[in-house]
Amino acid sequence: MNRTSSIVTLVLLASVGVGTTYLVQHAIAPHIAAEQRLIDSRNLLDLLPSDSYDNQPLEQPLNLDSSALANSTLLIGYRATKAGQPSAVLLRSQTLGYAGSIDLLIAIDINGKLLGVKTLKQSETPGLGGKIAEWPNSWLQVFSGKSRNEPGDSGWALKKDQGQFDQIAGATMTSRAVINAIHDALRYFDEHRQQLIGSSLHE
Questions:
Q1: Whether 77 contacts 62, CB under 8 Å
Q2: Contacts of residue 39, Cβ cutoff 8 Å, sequence gap at least 6
């Protein structure tokens, strides 16, 4: 076999290999994407009781108006429904902590009560503000059941700031940022309730 024939053979083999790889990747890409969506869904939706919705909330993103709030920014929202009726809203919020951005997922029921809060991303000091990333998180659980006005505006602060909440030990700035972001989200929900829950809710 001369050199030219060898080169042609190698090129053909390489082309077949590349083509086969492309076809395999193309065939399994939807499966991989579906698996990733399922993982993401479980990670995000574990704030909601499993029997409280029967839709796929992450497939129903909400358009958020005026998403730059007093102490945070709302990145996206989702609506959970059961039997066609809204049951909860999930708001992804970003606020500035001590060492950088903190992304929170905040679940609110249709009456404006907080169902739960979960940290999705943070870069706070390990062992101090970084504790915000632990799941389940006993400090974040304290806020469950609260609403925009329960406590009142002045109560949505640390005890050292004459508010109602303890801080994460050694993490004053992180604690303040999270408290303010949660209150922002509850206030936003209250002011945009109809837009967020939709028009299908029976009065």
A1: yes
A2: none
> How many alpha carbons fall within 13 Å on the CB side of residue 43?
11
Q: Give the torsion sign (CA, 54, 77, 63, 33).
A: negative
Helix H or strand E segment including 127: none
DSSP H helices, the chain, are: 3-45, 138-141, 172-191, 193-197
* Paired residues of 92 in beta bridges: 76, 105
Q: Retrieve residue 91's tokens.
A: 């708001």
Rg (Cα) of the chain, in Å, rounded? 23
Mean pLDDT of 39-53: 79
The total domain count for the chain is 2
* Residues 20 and 109 both lie in one domain: no
Both 38 and 101 in a single domain? no
pTM of the model: 0.78
| CA–CA distance, 62 with 58 (Å, rounded to integer) | 10
Q: What is the pLDDT of residues 177-202, one digit of tens each?
A: 999 999 999 999 999 999 999 855 44
User: pLDDT digits over 119-178, tens only?
Assistant: 999 999 999 999 999 999 999 999 999 999 999 999 999 999 999 999 999 999 999 999
Q: Verify that 161 and 95 share a domain, yes or no.
A: yes
Planar angle of CA 175, 176, 182, nearest 5 degrees:
90
Q: Which residues constitute the domain of residue 37?
A: 1-45
- Amino acid at residue number 107: A
